[in-house]
Amino acid sequence: MILDRFRLTDQVAIVTGASRGIGAATAVALAQAGADVVISARTTSDLVSVAHQIEDAGRHAHVVTADLSDLDTVADLAAAAVDAFGHLDIVVNNAGGTMPRPFADTSSGYLRRAFEWNVGTAHALTRAALPYLQASAETAGPEGIAAGRGPSVVTVSSAIGRVAGRGMVAYGTAKAALSHWTRMTAADLAPAIRVNGIAVGSVATSALQLVLDDEATRTAMEAATLLGRLGRPEDIAAGVVFLVSPAGSYLTGKLIEIDGGLDRASLEL
């Protein structure tokens, strides 16, 4: 049956930035599809809440409270996953984000930090996970990989990496780099490991709460999409499940635009 192709039974996943929003929804969705999940972020209480939801789905959660802006710390998650569950099959690079700032106020240091946070963390974790993902590919074998049961990496990028918006030079440039990092890494790791990404539009999460509280800004953001609404974290989580499951077995090096039909920048300073 077609729904069986979305199952991730007994696979092991890492999700960064998993305490709330897109990361939390993704971790729970992966568990509902059958995976055990390592979840990491700064706030223990939020992670514990997500862990309970994973366990309610009948799977196991392993909580790692950490500052993921530290590249050594984020790299340690790969070994933590194998220590907890014995293997690693899926990496979801969700940690990231940079506050809007006008160009004149965007120092070289701010731009560099945006790049490190949005691209460096994904690179550090994926590189550390590589030996374990390769082991997963060997276990799956060529036939398993062809059937979509091999390892997979997903990056959570942004639509602002392809559209222009005032005040978004650091964030947009970093997300554009992350999108191309996805394509380049897919080329290096094919065919054993699939690497794809999602270019996210405006999603109603706590990260956008300041702008969502302003009715005029929210209305403008909704009007910038063809569907006339903001995204939900579950919209993105569903895309991640598709990409890492056998349903997405013929995709690698691709950025799926889950943005409501965004046709222009939705946030300007």
> Structural class given helices, strands, pairing?
alpha/beta
The low-pLDDT segments are none
Biggest sheet statistics: 7 strands, parallel
Kindly report the average pLDDT value.
92
Quote the beta fraction: 5-15%
Give the overall form: globular
Radius of gyration: 18 Å
N-to-C order of helices and strands: EHEHEHEHEHEHHHE
In the sheet with the most strands, the strands line up as 3-2-1-4-5-6-7
Q: Number of helical runs?
A: 8
Q: What percentage of residues falls in helices of 4 or more residues?
A: 40-55%
Report, as a whole number of angstroms, the end-to-end distance.
Answer: 48 Å
Q: Would you count the extended β strands for me? A: 7
TL;DR of this structure?
The chain is of the alpha/beta class and 269 residues long. It has helices at residues 21-32, 44-56, 71-85, 108-146, 169-189, 209-212, 215-223, 233-244, and strands at residues 12-16, 36-41, 61-65, 90-93, 152-158, 194-200, 255-258.
Characterization of the model:
- The protein is 46% helix and 14% strand.
- It has helices spanning 21-32, 44-56, 71-85, 108-146, 169-189, 209-212, 215-223, 233-244, and strands at 12-16, 36-41, 61-65, 90-93, 152-158, 194-200, 255-258.
- Strand 2, helix 2 and strand 3 (61-65) form a beta-alpha-beta unit.
- The longest helix has 39 residues, at 108-146.
- It is globular and about 50 Å long.
